[in-house]
Amino acid sequence: MFSPTELMKHYVIDPQDSYFVNGVPPIENVAVVAYDPLWPNIYSTLASKIMIELGSNLLEIDHVGSTAVPGLAAKSIIDIDLTVADAADEKTYVSALENLGYRLIVREPRFHGHRLFHHDNPRVNLHVFTQDTPETARHLLFRDWLRQSEKDCKLYANAKFEAVKDCSFDIQKYHENKSKVVHDIYQRIFNHLGFI
What are 89-132's pLDDT values in tens digits? Predict the structure, then answer.
């Protein structure tokens, strides 16, 4: 569906690409915790409600990120990828998500139409993308690789515990601290797929 070049392209954040909708959101404590076996059930409940609310406007929904990998330590935040026909067409999904308690936080139109929503209880990062984007495919590749690679799952968990040590209130620094390990894991995935 996507070329190796498309899948291997890492998104680099540019200040021009990030638009907070209502100012910078409140600072949250960054904490990595042991895997919670309730996370998949929480996702399933959330996904069911979203599917009912969005109906045919929802093209795809997936549990991604570390809470989607059994046994992996993670921030206690459920990450969800949601695909719609055109993320720029906000009337097809924003009010429906707001009805469920989600708040639009960020618009990144040049990043495959990306919109980020937060939900507070349970804590959720909901990512809306336009259909046929390599970014959602990358998320699934990373998730599925960690589900089957005990070695990289352990490596990633250790990297996260290290990353959080000096940045308990700086999510950007946390991501930067673990970025090399994330990049290395992606390289192994792409190598396994025969891309490099």
Answer: 999 999 999 999 999 999 998 889 999 999 999 999 999 999 99
Distance CA 160, CA 33 (A): 10
**Alpha-carbon span 110 to 104, nearest angstrom:** 17
Q: What is the DSSP letter of 45?
A: H
Global pTM reads: 0.95
Sheet holding 124-130, edge to edge: 19-20, 103-108, 114-119, 124-130, 78-84, 60-64
Please enumerate in sequence order all residues whose Cβ is within 8 A of that of 173, keeping only pairs 6 or more positions apart, or say none: 166, 167
Rg (the chain; Cα; Å): 16
Tokens of 147: 């589900």
**Structure tokens belonging to residue 117:** 């929503």
CA dist list (Å): 100 to 63, 86, 93: 17, 20, 11
Question: Which residues lie closer than 8 Å to 52 by C-beta, 6 or more apart?
Answer: none
Q: Identify the H or E element spanning 104.
A: strand 103-108
- 98: tokens are 């707001």
Query: Is-cis flag, bond preceding 122, omega within 30?
Result: yes
Question: What span, in angstroms and rounded, lies between the C-alpha atoms of 164 and 166?
Answer: 6
β partners of residue 74: 33
Is the Cβ–Cβ distance between 73 and 157 less than 8 Å? yes
Task: For residues 196 and 189, give the distance between their C-alpha atoms in angstroms, rounded to a whole number.
Answer: 10
